[in-house]
Structure formats: structure tokens, C-alpha cells
Amino acid sequence: MLWRDAQTGKQTSLAFPxxxxxxSRDAARQLADGFKARLDLDGxxxxxxxxxxQGAAGEQxxxxxxxxxxxxxxxxxxxxxxxxxxxxxxxxxxRRTWSEHLxxxxxxxxxxxxxxxxxxxxxxxxSQKSMENxxxxxxxxFNAAIEHDEVPVRRNPVRGxxxxxxxxxxxxDGEDDDGEHCYLSHAEFEQLYEQIPAHxxxxxxxxxxxxxxxxxxxxxPISALNLVYDDHSPASARIFxxxxxxPGGWQLGPxxxxxxxxxxxxxxxxxDVLAGVVAGRSRRDFVFLSRNGRSHVHGPNFRxxxxxPAIERSGLDRRPRIHDLRHxxxxxxxxxxIDLAAIQQRLGHESITTTVxxxxxxxxxSRIRAAVAAGAVLHRxxxxxxxxx
Length: 389
Prior knowledge:
The protein has about 400 residues and is mainly alpha-helical. Helices cover about 45% and strands about 5% of the residues. The protein contains 16 helices and 7 strands. The strands form 3 sheets. It has a 3-stranded antiparallel β-sheet with strand order 3-4-7. A two-stranded antiparallel sheet has the order 1-2. A hairpin with an 8-residue loop joins β3 (about 225) and β4. α1 (about 20-40) runs antiparallel to α2 (about 45-55) and α9 crosses α13. The chain starts with a strand and ends in a 9-residue tail after the last helix.
């Protein structure tokens, strides 16, 4: 390794010899990376002191140094209570976020400033939800490192690093709930719906009239539908499975949460539309199929080939995501006076807190009524020390 001494201006070198086997080469590279990182951050004296603590200059320790990359490999490999698909998603998330900026650093040199610099770089190209997930993953990994006897970490550098709130790149899959919600008015939805090709209109109508998640609607089998209705018994769709990302693709699995297993009642007009879609087909078929009628609907393909072109043709000033049809559905229900508890059950939220936190801002009149009601109670109380208007 070559560098120029900041005080003397002289070029200086230090060798990190490696053996022929991969472990020895990896150890030498880790040692060189650690030395360079300390050289850049703290100067040559600190770097040499650190190197001496590893053994002696030019000698490798018995095991490679703990860089962030090495620790994340270890952490994810030994993570329990996750599926292999989730483990693979964590690996992909780490590689496209922290590994690029911090992975080669010795883990004890990953400080708060380094994490903050990486956050500022990543938020220029990642969605808000992806950044929140990446931050949570890194923080959990450092918490685990603190408890590991062999890893030289004493504090979590992620703690206290806040994510900026602002414009983030939109996600591509239509499923993640990123950034600002886009609530379409009736007129805006009609404007967009007219530009959706006829083959896909029943799917779009189902999303906006039921609030189903994309992964739920596209996983619906015909057997889950009850399209017979009368004045006392509405049509319905039973949600019991959804698409899940796994290594190499997608597979069917249980929906997002236990509360997501639910029966969604259907408007009569939607039941009539779906009856035409599924007529004469096997009950084992998906309700919604690709144009060729042989495979399920793929989100990224739908977004690129159908959704985005329809938005362009519609002339809408805003660019709603597919997931915004779910938000739009809720906004229409609230406008009709439906309470949040009923909306929680319809959406399959695990907790009413999620529903209130997500859509409470659409009900300002409820907060006003609450304040008025509290004032009315106060007037009934016998509290003479309070002057009443």
C-alpha cells in the first residue's frame, strides 16, 4: 500500500503479504482495508497503533478483521425466525444500500458520521420505505454485534441518525406504501380509468372498490368469490393468500398479517363485472390473468406496460402509484361517513392504530366534533372555578 505522509510529504509504503489460500488473501485484504480506513480518518500514527494491536506490521491475524460486510454476512446467516425468502431480501437490501458505502470499513470505524453520510447519499435514489427498512436492518445488525464477544463494537452508530423527510424515488412494485399518499377524486379516477385497456379494467376496478392490496387481488382464485347477492346478503371475496417474494421469483403464501385473512364484501356493480370475467372458467384459475390468459399478473410488467402509459394518456397532473388505489378507496369511504373501525377490518389492518395513523388526517371534522363534545361535557360538570362563556 502506498500513501503520502501529510507532515513530510514523502511517499511511504507498507506491505500486506498474503498466502496462497483464499482465507489468507481475505485476511490480508481485510487488514489492508482496516489500515487504510484508519489512515484516512485519523492519520498514520493511529493507523500504525491499530496495526500493531492486530499483531505486527505486515503480519495477519488468525482470522479476517470484522468489516461491516463480514459481520452482515454472519448476522444474516444466523438470523432466526425468518424465511429464506426474507433472508434473501435482507441480503439484497444490504448490498444495494450500506455495502456500497460502508461495507469495506472495519466495523468499529462505522461511526455516526459515516452512517449519516451514507444516508444522505442513499436518499437521493431510494424510496422512503426502502430507507426505513435499510436503517432498521443496519440498526438491528449493530445491536446484535454489541452482544457478540468477538466483534469490537460497543455502541450502535445508527441510533440518533434520522432519515430526511421529503422527496424520494417512487418504488417500482406498486405494493410498498412509500411517500405521500395520492387520493384520487371520483373525476380523476374516471379520467384514469378511461385510459386503462379493457382487459385490465376489472382488476383496477377491484382495487379501487375493495381496497385490496395488489398482492392479494392478483392471488385471488375464482373459488374465493361469492358473486350471488340480494338485499340481505352481499357478494364477497375471501382473502386467504397473497404473493410473496422469494429467491428467484414469487410464490403464494398467507397474506401480510393474520388480520389480513378476511372476507371483503363487494359492491353489486363489481360483482356483476367479475361474474363476466370468470364466466365458464375453472374455479382453480386466478380471477385475473395476463393478456394471454395463461399466467398470473406480474406487478412490474403491469406497472410499466399498463399503469404508467395510462397515466400519461390521462393527462393527470399527479402520478398515483398502484397502491394509491387502496388509499383512494379509503378516502371515498371516509367521505361517505364510514368509521375507521370498519375501514380497519376491510383493509385487514392488524391494529386500529395503523388505520388511524395512516388515514386520521382525512377526518379533521372528527377531531372538531371531539373537541365540541368535550366542551359539552365540561358544561355539565359542577366546577364553579371555571368561567363559562
